[in-house]
Amino acid sequence: MAKHLGAKPRIGLLGTGPWAARTHAPALAGHPGVEFSGVWGRRPEAAAELAAASGTRAYEDVDALLAASDAVALALPPDVQAPLAVRAAEAGCHVLLDKPVATTVALAREVTGAVEAAGVASVVFCTLRFAEPTARWIDEQAAAGGWFLGEAHWLGSLYGPGSVSAYAASPWRREKGGLWDVGPHVLSVYLPILGDVTDVTAVPGPDGTHHLVLRHDSGASSTATLTLSAPPEAAEAALTLHGSRGRAGMPRWDGAVGAFAAAVDALVTAARTGEPHPCDVRFGLRLTEILAEAEHRAARG
User: Fold this and answer.
1) In what residue span(s) does the Gfo/Idh/MocA-like oxidoreductase N-terminal domain sit (predicted)?
2) pTM (2 decimals)?
3) Rounded to whole angstroms, how far apart are CA atoms 258 and 22?
């Protein structure tokens, strides 16, 4: 049974890596409307360090943190996140998931089924859907309509020459690449504006790059080039729409802490009202289905 939220919901954090330390923990610690109930990590020493820096307590037993929380945020590799999200939902905790929910459709369906069976609220943190400039722009373009083409390229330099990013040490990003790491960002913009994807063409490029061509149920088409291996000089994230009103370029956004705080608000609202958020676990499942199909198509050459 889903937990009832009090005046100040208790939200715990599962995960202690750079993304958790730089985004999730600061947002939860600084949020005036929630109680940061604690941190659990696969490395107890990292959990203790992050908890001390965030003014909360560390848990060595994940079930103890679930018992002490009304909701949990997850900042873990996707296929580690999925079974723990199932466990959290079964404990009645509302879940704030990271993208992608999982890197297999089967695992994403398990999470979705657990969330639905428990009746808990869910939000998948797709940064562009919660950062104020981009979230407002997406809503405006979806309302305007009339788009027939989208063009996107997300050229990350995580594995480019000279990179010193802390995220480069992530094994799952190294294995799955830009398709799974930044692909969800692009899809999270395209789907609410152009509609669901009805057909996928995918071609592999150099150094883990993927080129996608998508058909949408609105009749529009879109393209996306995704990589984590671009030279730093070429790094950029851009998305442009073309339609009856001309061209519209997605605005830039600044950081993720504020966006994550907005996602926390969205989860609390969904839990209190019972109204699903557009970026709920079902949306996360759909992203996984599209990306898995793209991966399959690219592997076939």
Assistant:
1) 10-121
2) 0.97
3) 11
